[in-house]
Design a protein that fits this description.
21 helices, alpha+beta, 13 strands, glycoprotein, nine-stranded mixed beta sheet, membrane, isoprene biosynthesis
Length: about 600
Amino acid sequence: MDVRRRPVNPLCTSKDASAGEPLKQQQVSSPKASDALPLPLYLTNGLFFTMFFSVMYFLLVRWREKIRNSIPLHVVTLSELLAMVSLIASVIYLLGFFGIGFVQSFVSRSNSDSWDIEDENAEQLIIEEDSRRGPCAAATTLGCVVPPPPVRKIAPMVPQQPAKAALSQTEKPAPIIMPALSEDDEEIIQSVVQGKTPSYSLESKLGDCMRAASIRKEALQRITGKSLEGLPLEGFDYESILGQCCEMPVGYVQIPVGIAGPLLLDGREYSVPMATTEGCLVASTNRGCKAIFVSGGANSILLRDGMTRAPVVRFTTAKRAAELKFFVEDPANFEILSLMFNKSSRFARLQGIQCAIAGKNLYMRFSCSTGDAMGMNMVSKGVQNVLDYLQSEYPDMDVIGISGNFCSDKKPAAVNWIEGRGKSVVCEAIIKEDVVKKVLKTEVAALVELNMLKNLTGSAMAGALGGFNAHASNIVSAVYLATGQDPAQNVESSHCITMMEAVNDGKDLHISVTMPSIEVGTVGGGTQLASQSACLNLLGVKGANRDAPGSNARLLATIVAGSVLAGELSLMSAISAGQLVKSHMKYNRSIKDISQVINSS
C-alpha cells in the first residue's frame, strides 16, 4: 500500500470562477471564546474570571454559614440559585476558552502533517467525502488547478496582554476588597503604613472620626495583609465614642438582641433586652419569666448601694501604718475625711472606710454612693482628694497605687462576696405547683434536691467563690452588653447564691437569688451609645433620675437580679427534667441525631 503526504488547502473557488469573476475565499470559521460577548477578548476573559471567583467566594461563605447554623446545603435561596447559574455560565465559558484553543492547536498540527493512504478505493473515498463539502473541495482533491485568492490587506494583530494577565489571576488568592479612595486619603494611608503618621492621631489631625476610622481600617488591612470585609464600618456614630468609649476604632461588632419577658417584678412588667450569641439563652430566660408571671410575680430588696476603691500606701514601719489605720477608722475624723471626699462630685457621698494591714502596708477600702453612675471614676477622684489630705498629715506616707486590689474590681474576691460592691440585691418568688409541672415540666421536690446537690454542694466541692448558682453570669453578661454596662464587671456582678425550698406543705417552690455586687449605671460609659440607650429606655431607666438621683441605677440592678432569677429557674428545671441537651440541640447546635452518628462510626 502506497502512502504519501497530501497538502491540505482550505481555499476553493466559486462556480463562476472561469467567467472572470473575482475569486471568493471560503474559510470555515471555528467558534471562538470571544464570541460569548461582543467585547474584546481581554475584557471578556476578565469579566468571566471575575464572575467565577466572586461567585465561588459568595457560595463558599454561604456554605460555611449553613454548616455553622446547621442548615442543610440543599436548601437554596434565590441569591444562591442565581449565583450557581452564574458559576455554571463562567465555567462553561472557561472550559470553552481553554478547550477550543487546545482543539484548534491539535487540528492545526494534524493538518500540517496529514497523510493519505492510496489503495484501490482510496481515491474514490476521498472524492465522495469531498463531494459533501461542495465542488471546490472535490476539485482540490482531484488535483484541479485552483487560482490563488485575491490578496487582502489585514491589519496587524495586537497582542492580547490583558487576557494573559487574566490567566495569571488564577494563580493568586482573592484580593482584599478596597474602597474607592481619594488622593488625599491614599496619601494618609501610605503615611500610616510607613509609620510616619501614628494611627491614634488620625481623629485629631483630620477632624472627622468617620474618615479616620475608614483610613485606619484600610491601613490595617494593608499592614497585616488580612481582610476586614466582614467588619462593618458604616452606620455608626464614631463621634459619640471619641474620648470616652473606644480608641482607634476600625468598625463595630454586631451582636443580636433578644427580648425576654414580660418580667413581673415588684408589681411592674419589664421587657428585658439581652445581647447574646448563645442560642437557647433568651428562650430559657423567657420561659422563666413566664413561670414567674403566672405565679404572681417576683419581689426584690436592695440591701446596699456603694461603689468601692482601695488604695495601698506604705510606711517605713508597721507601727506608722497602724497609726493611720486608727486615724481613718476613728468616727471623730470621718467628717473631715468625707468633706475632702465629697467635694469631687455633687453625687459622690462617702459611706465608710475599711482598712486592712499587711506588714507596713495599709489598704483603705473607701465606699461611697455614686448616683445613677456606676461610679468608678467618681470614687477614684474622691479617694485622690483624701490621699492628698492625708499626705499633708502623714508626710512619710508613700502612695503605692490608687488601687491596691482590695476594692476589688473585675476579679472574683471574697471581700465583694461578703461586704458587697455596687448594688446588693435579693430577689425572690413563689412558683405554684401547677406552674412547675405545666410550664417548667418538672417537680418541686426534684428542683429542691437538684439545687442542693448542684448549686450548693457541687459548688462547694469545686471551691467556688460566689458561684453558688447555675448560670447567673449568662444573664448578667447579656443584659450588661445590651444596656452599655462594663462587660468585664460581669466577674463580680455574677456573684450569686440560688436557694430553693418547698413551701405550702411542699406543694409550691420558693426560689431566691442573692447577688451582693451588681455594678451598674444608667449614665456615662457605654450607656450613652444609641443602641444601648434604646435598651435602657425600654426598661424605663434611661439617663439620670433628676427627682431621686441613683434610683434608675438601683432599679436596673433589681431588674438584673429578677432576670437572673428567671434564668436560674428555667435552666434548673431543664436539667431536672432532662431537657438540657435536647433544647440546646434544637436552638443552639446541630439537628443531627448524635446516636446515629456514633452508630455509623
